[in-house]
Amino acid sequence: MKLFVGLGNPGKLYLNTRHNVGHQIIDILKTKDLLHAKFETNTGFMNEAGLSVQKVINFYKVDLKDFYLIHDDLDIPIGEFKVQFDRGPAGHHGVESVIAHLGSQSFTRIRVGVGKPTNNIPIEDYVLQKFSVNEKKLLSPVITDIITLVNKIVEQ
Fold first, then answer.
1. Fewer CB atoms < 10 Å away: N or C end of the chain?
2. Thinking of the domain 2-155, which architecture would CATH place it in?
3. Which residues contact 125 (CB under 8 A, 6 or more apart)?
């Protein structure tokens, strides 16, 4: 079984924000009929995500080679994503928490580009902003591509 976990923050206040793109993708994946896969989101706030991720991995008894973490990434432009295995957190506090709780970074990350802030907006504020209409247009095909990728991973 494959386990996909999307990172984000709980509550309506954070819906459709850059930081919650992982939750958004998991919500879409949950509507698909994919056998041999589980789709979860962290239950606490982003910076403490590792605790709930560790619990769900232990609950399903998933080997880290079958674990995929989906999260926002400032180093990737909106409209792009990267899939990487065994990489450090690159300053992402949610990923730092997951690595710390798992005691390993040997899992696959699906890094969804949200771009970098402009106009000296603090990063903490930028990631909690909702996507603009134009950004949603750029993000939509990325989400479609990630859904296709997840289907291929699950079918292997």
1. C
2. 3-Layer(aba) Sandwich (3.40)
3. 117
